[in-house]
Design a protein that fits this description.
This protein has about 350 residues and is α+β, with helices and mostly antiparallel strands. The protein folds into two domains: about 5-100; about 125-340, Ribonuclease Z/Hydroxyacylglutathione hydrolase-like (Metallo-beta-lactamase, Chain A, 4-Layer Sandwich). It has eight helices and 19 strands. A seven-stranded antiparallel beta sheet has the order 1-2-3-4-5-6-7, with helices on one face. Strands 8-9-10-11-12-13-14 form a seven-stranded mixed beta sheet, with helices on one face. Helix 2 (about 160-175) packs across helix 4 (about 195-205). The N and C termini lie far apart (about 50 Å).
Length: about 350
């Protein structure tokens, strides 16, 4: 996609893929498809590629429109090339370039890494017991937590994508058999923390998230998922939400799960953490990522981690363990305090 949406790449791909051309205002519209991927380009009256539109799959947004606009073509030593390039993805501007120099056909030596053609590694999920009925589901760069309630299961976080969340769901069912996953607690909408939430909707879980996130998810999930139909696109189940403002409590009458908005956090406006008062466990993602063993402390205090510590103090939470949704493993409040204490560089 990155190659075929460049002006020269689009024209070459159009020829290879038997594109059709129809008159357009001041030029022509050129369209072709490759598998499920469609490309639409606008050629202006000067025979310049002025615009290229395509769609890519995104685990949250589904079929996501990507639009490149090329303008202010100039002659760079005999090569006509746009001096301004803009990219809009999912209706949001993500790139703007001003081109000051162009070299035609420079010598390059690019070797594709061996892993480029390797099959994706299977998603691995390991289980670490944090307390009776509380399990840390680790794997790769993103983690989840499963909490065993009397007649159901609560999972905190459905990250990355369907493959990851499907593996988490399978491991949860293996670890806590014969109970449904009733709730999925979502900390925030960033794609790496919400890419697998749709998988939990298909599983039948109610999505517990901050009230500001619900309209976003509803709008995003209304989009078609035709390029890579996921389980929810196939089952067409309707999402059920349980939202909150500053605090929300889930309980089975024995174990209480407290969910708090992280106030004043600069990472996200609708940002949540989860606290288990009986077990004194805090579950959080992106506010604090513990360091690997023997890693030196940061030279400056991380503002998100400082803010997390301030929220713990404000809410008077008695935290013994921190289960971070990133990082090497479980941490303590002492680890957090060391992390937000700047290193003495004198």
């Amino acid at each position: 996609m990155e190659i075929w949406t460049t002006p020269h790449g689009f024209l070459k791909a159009a020829v290879v893929n038997n594109a059709t051309s129809t008159p357009s205002e001041g030029g022509s519209e050129v369209t072709f498809s490759s598998g499920k991927n469609k490309y639409v380009g606008i050629i202006n009256a000067q025979n310049e590629v002025a615009r290229v539109q395509t769609w890519i799959d995104n685990p949250v947004l589904g079929d996501t429109e990507v639009v490149f606009t090329y303008s202010d073509y100039k002659d760079f030593g005999g090569v006509r090339f746009p001096s301004r390039i803009q990219r809009v993805q999912g209706e949001h501007p993500v790139l703007e370039l001003t081109v000051s120099a162009v070299t035609a056909n420079p010598a390059v030596n690019i070797t594709a890494p061996a892993e480029a053609n390797a099959a994706p590694a299977p998603v691995a999920v390991t289980v670490e017991k944090l307390a009776n009925g509380v399990y840390f589901l680790k794997g790769g760069t993103h983690h989840s937590v499963a909490i065993d309630q009397k007649d159901h299961i609560v999972v905190v976080e459905g990250p990355q994508n369907e493959a990851r969340s499907s593996a988490v769901i399978a491991k949860v069912k293996e670890t806590i058999p014969n109970k449904p996953i009733k709730y999925l607690v979502n900390t925030h909408v960033h794609f790496d923390h919400s890419g697998g939430v749709r998988t939990f909707v298909d599983e039948g879980a109610t999505i517990v998230t901050h009230q500001d996130n619900k309209p976003y998810y509803q709008k995003a999930w209304d989009a078609p998922h035709t390029i890579n139909p996921d389980k929810l696109a196939q089952s067409k189940k309707t999402a059920t939400f349980e939202t909150f403002g500053d605090k929300h409590v889930l309980t089975d009458g024995s174990r209480t799960i407290e969910i708090y908005k992280i106030a004043g956090g600069g990472h996200n406006d609708a940002f949540a953490m989860v606290y288990l008062p009986k077990e004194k466990i805090l579950i959080e993602g992106d506010a604090y990522t513990p360091l690997a063993a023997n890693a030196p402390p940061p030279a400056a205090a991380n503002p998100f981690a400082v803010n997390l510590d301030e929220n713990i103090t404000r809410l008077k939470l008695d935290v013994k363990q921190i289960a971070p949704l990133h990082g090497p493993g479980v941490a303590t409040m002492a680890d957090l305090k060391a992390f937000i204490t700047p290193r003495n560089t004198n």
